[in-house]
Each structure stands twice: as structure tokens, then as C-alpha cells.
Amino acid sequence: MRVATLFGITLSLAIGIGGVAIPVTQAVQLRDGTVYFVQPPKLVSATTTYENVNVWGAIYYFTINVPENAGESLQKVTITQKEGAENIRYDLNDTRAFVGTRDRQEFRLTLGAVTSDRKTQTVTVNFEPPLTPGQTVTIALRPLSNPSISGVYLLGVTAFPVGEKSHGQFLGFGRLQFYSNSSW
């Protein structure tokens, strides 16, 4: 495994000799060209605005922190449903992302393609431009409606660094629980 620098060791040494040290952003890159995060992002939370089944107008929020020492910008995120009684479908045209958290939205981000693979139950959100390290981003997905069957739904979140051949880092599961409207 070799570590590639964005600015190069020569530049950092030349500037460092003058008494000024600048941070050099590094990315982990394998011999075959695969790019990895130096320090992977972290899934901070996954929440929904409504927890009842069959509700229209819900939004699912996935908050991810990209650390200062990530080494690469965040290019895309995939969200894959791994557990749940029925497949959740989304209105991809209404997908949003912003810097900040659900409760503290700083500014909206421009997204590239947002796609869905129904066979693998995966939504892919591309950032255009990629999100630089040292920021917290929240992705807002709007389902067509909440599932009609109550229970726990697990959504796996994976982050990909910039690069033609980037390795996705699995960040963990977002756990959403939906409850039946009926009373016992």
C-alpha cells in the first residue's frame, strides 16, 4: 500500500524550510489505483420525521461526519435497505443534502445523479462537487410513503471517496422503526 499526497512531499518540504508548515492532505491509494479514506466518515444519526406506518410526507435524514483527516473528499453515499418487511421506495427527485444536521441546517449542497437500484434496494447519492473533509452532511430522502408494515427497518450506509476506483467504507446501519396506528 502506498500513500499518495495531493501537494507532494517536495512542496511541503520547500514551504516547511521557510518556517511555515502547511497540512498535507493524504489519501490511501493501493498499487492497483483503489482509493481509500485515511480516516473514514462516521454515520452520526438516521431519523425520520414520522414513525407511523402508511404516512405520506415523511423525510428520512442520514447525518454523516467527514473528519478533517479523511484524506479525500466525499464523492457519494449509498443507502441500502438490509432489513424490513417491505421495500421502501423513494421520490428521488426530492432528495436533498445540506451541510449541518437535521436541526441545524447550514446550507444546501448541489447533488449530482441520485439513482435507485430496486433489485439491490440501494439509493446512490452523488455530491457535485464532492464534499471536502471537516464537514457534517445530512442527506434527506423522501419515501413515497412510510412502509405499511410496522417494525424495524435497517438501512446500511456506505461512503465513497473521490476517485475513479474508490473503495466504499461501510459506516453502519441507520435504524428506523415504524409503528402501527392501531391501538391494542
Number of domains: 1
State the strand order across the main sheet. 4-5-11-7-8
How far apart the termini lie comes to: 58 Å
Q: For the record, what CATH class applies?
A: Mainly Beta
Spatial shape: globular
Calculate Rg over CA atoms: 19 Å
Runs with pLDDT <50, length 5+?
1-25
Examine the coordinates and then state which fold CATH places here, giving the name of the CATH topology.
Immunoglobulin-like
Beta-strand level of the residues, as a percent range? over 45%
Percentage of residues assigned to helices: under 10%
Output the structural class: mainly beta
Number of DSSP E strands = 13
The helix/strand series, from N terminus to C terminus, equals: EHEEEEEEEEEEEE
Q: How many individual helices? A: 1
CATH architecture grouping: Sandwich
Whole-number average pLDDT?
Answer: 86
State the gist of this model.
With 184 residues, the protein is mostly beta strands. It has one helix spanning 9-17, and strands at residues 2-5, 26-29, 35-36, 42-48, 60-66, 74-83, 96-100, 105-108, 111-117, 122-131, 135-141, 151-161, 169-178. It has one domain: Immunoglobulin-like, CATH 2.60.40.
